[in-house]
Amino acid sequence: LPILVVEDDPGLREAVCDTLTLAGKPVLSAPGGHEAMAILSGQPVSIVVSDVRMMPMDGIALLKEIRTHWPHLPVVLM
Asked: Is pTM, for the whole model, over 0.85?
């Protein structure tokens, strides 16, 4: 299953995705929490790696939403 990277800074999002791809991991990305929730609603992922400071939905709010719908999905906040 892919890793979902959620980061509002395009350059950092690309760098994290490139690093994971070079490590042989399948990756999906989202520029924010709402987009991440849309991806999660349509496709399973192995883990979510998310920025904490984003607008309008920050990483803590995203974590709470993920816990509500997918309580066993691992989430890493950075």
From this structure: yes
Joined together, the tokens standing for residue 11 give 């350059």
Instruction: Work out the pLDDT band at 2, boundaries 50, 70, 90.
Output: very high
- Residue 47: other Cβ atoms inside 10 A: 14
CA 71 to chain centre: 15
Report the pLDDT value the prediction gives residue 43, as an integer from 0 to 100: 96
Alpha-carbon span 70 to 44, nearest angstrom: 10
> Which letter, b or e, does each residue of 14-44 get, where b requires 16 or more Cβ atoms within 10 Å of its Cβ?
eebbeebeeeeeebbbbebbeebbebbeeee
Cβ–Cβ < 8 Å for 43, 71: no
pLDDT, averaged across the chain: 97
